Amino acid sequence: MEEEAGVRRWIVDITRWRPSPDQFDAAAALLPSHERPAIARFVKEDDRKRALVSRLLQYSLVHHVLRIPLHQINICRTPEGKPYLQKNCSAFPNFNFNTSHQGDYVGIASEPICLVGLDIVSISKPQGETTTEFISNFSSYLTDHEWNCIVRAGTSCEVLTEFYRYWCLKEAFVKAMGAGVGFGLHRLEFHHEHWTDISIHIDGEVTKKWGFWLFKLDEMHLASVAKGHPEGAVSSYKKALSTVSVTEEQLHSTLESPEEAFTLWTVEQLTESME
């Protein structure tokens, strides 16, 4: 079913990949030349690895799902940085994907009809400040309801995890829309039942056109997936979509279908699939 649907949830643990300089360059050489400067500009090795693996995931996934030869894949970006496929002639007119990376993981999610956003967070303890001081830096991005849920979560570790759950969901939504960093996260308010049946209120109004899922990747990392109606895309990203019309049945089917767990890939598997 997954092969037909164009739905993918892939993730890579970059700590398992320790390439030599030659191995790194060989992997980068699989990408179009215009993608490589964006990788080379990073100073730290881990940042370069994340940037490289993010792009390997994009090209490998498009090649894998849509059967487009690698040299014919043309991934563009909107002014806000949202990647999209130029000249998508596949059976999935709205095929779209989103990547995220933080900490040990780089991931990608794709959908054939609805918008998809992915965000990965690393639950790292604040350095040089208390948990309360740390999350206070982000209070303007949270609603009163969210703030109260966070500070009442329990221990400092539980408070921190609760904060990152909300933050992860907000980022996934904004990324799915294709919005830039200036989008007002305080306009979004999430409600849930023990972090299932998650719903969103936008400017105080609940919407049934979006679905959200949270995943615990390990003790220190969370991932969230947002799926929604294409009409929710920002204008620059709407232009990249083939259609923003989705039937109620298609939307309901997408939002009600169970969310698949992530498939763990190694960098070696990705590069082999591209050669």
TrEMBL record:
UniProt keyword Transferase, yes or no: yes
Transmembrane segments: none
Highest taxon above the source species: Eukaryota
EC number: 2.7.8.7
Residues covered by the 4'-phosphopantetheinyl transferase N-terminal domain: 16-112
Keyword annotations of the record: Transferase
Location of the 4'-phosphopantetheinyl transferase domain: 116-219
One example GO MF annotation: holo-[acyl-carrier-protein] synthase activity
The name this protein goes by in its record: holo-[acyl-carrier-protein] synthase
